[in-house]
Amino acid sequence: MITNLSVFKVFQHSDEYFEMLSNKEYSRKFVLRQVLFIFLFTFLYGIVMGSYNSFLQSLVTGIKVPCLIFLSLLICFPALFVIQYMIGSTMTLSQMANVILSGFLVFSTITLSFAPIVIFFMITSDNYAFLKLLHVSIFTFSGIFAVKTIIGGLSFSCEKKNIYPKLGMKIFKIWIVIFAFVASQLAWNLRPFVGSREMPFELFRVRESNFYVAVIHSVTHLFTPDNDTKTTHEVK
After folding, report:
1. Helix, strand, coil in percent for the chain, rounding step 5
2. Degrees, nearest 5: CA angle 9-15-19
3. 30, 41, 70: which is closest to 142 by C-alpha?
4. How many CA atoms lie within 13 A of 23 on its CB side?
5. pLDDT at position 235
6. pTM of this prediction?
7. Cα separation of 167 and 176, whole Å?
């Protein structure tokens, strides 16, 4: 009998959690709950992230990070749902959304748990390039667990509920790569997230280069800290 409807059961009791998600009686309720927690956790992490530059940057980044997550999902989710429906999935829209959101709930929770570490380095270090790479690393690390969670949910729907086709697992792995590219490009267009202390507050940067070139620039700058930071490309 289902007695605990906490969204955080996904961390320790994933099968029980995905059983609840497959139940149409609960699936719609979980969509809103997961969205609220994802927004709250990513907003708080964004506050910490932007506080390196200024109070205003902190507030703006607090809004930008959840926007990045939800806009990326809004862009990419329709393709996944339509394709999985065409190959024989009987998952409802809310069931599929819940499985995907469960991964992002894990992502946002793990990301927020790194906030004390980020604050520590902001207090004890003034290396802007290092902080940008730290945030990229945290997002990547959290994303690995998010993908693992989603695959677990889809596997449960496939093997134990028989509402998701095996082919869908392969399609999801392709989709997550596409999602990563979309999210990276969107993040590049929404930058800055961190904001250099040597530069004034800007809502958005001028479009130039791309996310991957900027990461390489940040890695290079990490080992040449005497360079003028004003010429360094923004990753965040």
Report:
1. 75, 0, 25
2. 90
3. 41
4. 13
5. 43
6. 0.84
7. 15
